[in-house]
Amino acid sequence: GYEYTHTTDRLWRKNRAANPHTLGLCRGVDLNRNFGYKWAEDIFILDPRPASPIPCLDTYHGEQAFSEPETQAVRGFVMGKRDRIDAYLAFHSFGNKILYPWGHTSEKV
User: Fold this and answer.
1) Number of Cβ within a 10 Å radius of residue 59
2) 3-class DSSP string for 36-75
3) Phi, psi (5° rounding) for residue 58?
4) What are 46-87's pLDDT values in tens digits?
5) What is the dihedral of CA 79, 2, 91, 49, to 10 degrees?
6) HSE of 65 in the Cβ direction (CA atoms, 13 Å)?
7) Rounded to two decimals, what is the model's pTM?
8) Burial class of residue 45, CB neighbours in 10 A (0-12, 13-18, 19+)
């Protein structure tokens, strides 16, 4: 996805994984929505904001939690160093936001 965003579509947000269910028409999984915690919980098919089971949408969460090699690598790295990691922050430059767990709720932390 990184190379694709610099050569073809600057606002592309998914990886470039092929999806056999779409006959090659829709590619990629939104890696931010492919992690295991609360994966695909409370999904409403007409509201893709939390995540979507529809492969052609930008918020497609994948076939299952950690289905993508990128999220598997992050999980492996974090779990391998969990005794030395105190926090995990994801910087999102498009929205100028810093996201921290948990993004599944609007309750104040």
Assistant:
1) 19
2) CCCCCCCCECCECCCCECCCCCCCECCCCCCCCHHHHHHH
3) -65, -25
4) 777 788 999 999 999 999 999 999 999 999 999 999 999 988
5) -90
6) 8
7) 0.81
8) exposed
